[in-house]
Fold Uricase.
Amino acid sequence: MAIVLGEHQYGKAENRIVRIYRDSPRHEIHDVNVSTALRGAFDPAHLTGDQGAVLPTDTQKQTAYSYAKEKGLTSIEPYGLTLAAHFVDDVEPVTGARIEIEEYEWERAVVDGAEHDHTFVRKGQEVRTAAITVEGVGADQTSHVIGGFKDLVLLKTTGSEFHGFLEDPYTVLEPTSDRIMATSLVAKWRFVMDEVGDPAAFDWEGVYLGIKRTVIEVFATLHSLALQQTLYEMGKAVLEQYPFLAEIRMSAPNKHHFLYDLSPFGLTNDNEVFNADDRPYGLIQASVVRDDAPAAGSAWTIAGGFA
Ligand SMILES: O=c1[nH]c(=O)c2[nH]c(=O)[nH]c2[nH]1
């Protein structure tokens, strides 16, 4: 029996980078949280404490900030691709890099009925995400981009049913033909990089907004028989809209709203007053996949299963 070093990676987590474009009086803001992770032959650092191959996490941080200026930071996907490719291409021991990014959106403050040039109000909606993996060198190099969002909180007050489910001795849930449906949606979609083409010329912003719009439209307009059905229809609509997406993975907590019992007060409750239950929550997860899509390779892989 021998005890050996397993998979490992290292990097600087959660670099909170705010990039301002101030070339004109109308400033632009990009507010992101960037995590880097480098993979390669870093065994000596663990086994003997030899740092010869280790590019410090501090250097990774400095590079992430510097690239926000040097290479620009507008769309998070190409920024992540450039940063990941730099670590793999220019830092000898690095064979793979994964960059995870969250973006916090700001909207312009409105002053005297007009959008302000340099004052912003944080948007309370979803957080945009990206996970970029670059591996290998030269002609063997592969790049993966997963776009996404989390915390997109959606609620509809009708147009949702849940009945006809399997019942056993422990089933107490009443069927319903009219309920509130609410979730805080997480979605991640995988780009087919050959079809994206030049990342610098691709419309990352338009695609992001288009996916979000489609997801919201399906949630609103589909008369839902279960959150499972809603997820599938959302994913299908997104893949139909964008042929360069291979798959979409979604995680949807079912934020239960239970009708509150007002009968002790002699009141009827015709789907008007609910208790918004915090936990436990149903957790519905589904992926929707194009069956001829290229294999995912390491696009989703998190080394060592580290969270
Ligand atoms: O949309 C739903 N899907 C379920 O699987 C489920 N289970 C449950 O108790 N409520 C719901 N709602």
